[in-house]
Design goal:
Rossmann fold, alpha/beta, seven-stranded mixed sheet, elongated
């Protein structure tokens, strides 16, 4: 059975680091699930439907283009979101789309959180803004999220960001499948007993 994943990305620039983060989170999740045969991805770029979202907020009616995207979210098995952080919170455009989603469409739906910002000072916005929002909506929020600051895309930090993305994708895949977390290697599991060390020292003396 193929897992249907909807991706909401709220970047407003072109190209967008917010979109890039969303794409890489989706790719990591699909890999962890077993590849394209195990999961399909539909991307909803809020920038493309900004006017439709605004009109829906004002009139209560969705255009056909917006309704198509709202249906993708409602019918998806899982959701990946990525929002830029402005003034320590998610963007207003992102929140507007969330506000017009069908009632209870996110209830019990697994959600992976991602966010981008100019500096690492905004990193806590995932925990004090995004996570409470989706918890309120009844979603099953993945415990591992990714915040990417501008410097994280640099050559010296890109590797670490990639590791965090892979970790988040793996954790989200386990949430979707119910698979157990990989066993952690105990660095003290095969430590030489103190008595043996002492015997070696005594024998050498």
């Amino acid at each position: 059975m193929t897992t249907r994943i909807a991706v909401i990305t709220a970047g407003i620039t072109e190209p967008s680091s917010t979109r890039l983060l969303a794409d890489r989170l989706a790719e990591a999740t699909v890999r962890a699930l077993g590849g394209p045969s195990a999961a399909s991805v539909d991307v909803i770029d809020v920038r493309d439907i900004a006017h439709d979202v605004t009109n829906h907020v004002l009139t209560g009616f969705a255009s056909p283009e917006l309704q198509e995207r709202l249906d993708l979210v409602a019918e998806a098995d899982a959701l990946i979101v990525s929002s830029p952080i402005y003034t320590a919170s998610y963007s207003g455009l992102f929140k507007m789309l969330i506000d017009v989603l069908p009632k209870d469409s996110l209830r019990d739906k697994p959600v992976l959180l991602g966010a981008t910002g100019g500096t690492a000072r905004h990193s806590l916005a995932i925990d004090h803004a995004l996570r409470p929002l989706f918890a309120y909506l009844g979603a099953l929020v993945s415990p591992v999220a990714v915040f990417a600051a501008s410097e994280d895309w640099g050559s010296t930090e890109a590797g670490r960001l990639g590791e965090r993305i892979e970790r988040a994708g793996g954790a989200f895949a386990r949430l979707l499948t119910g698979a157990p977390a990989p066993k952690q290697v105990d660095p003290f599991e095969n430590v030489t007993p103190f008595e043996a060390l002492l015997a070696d020292v005594t024998g050498a003396a």
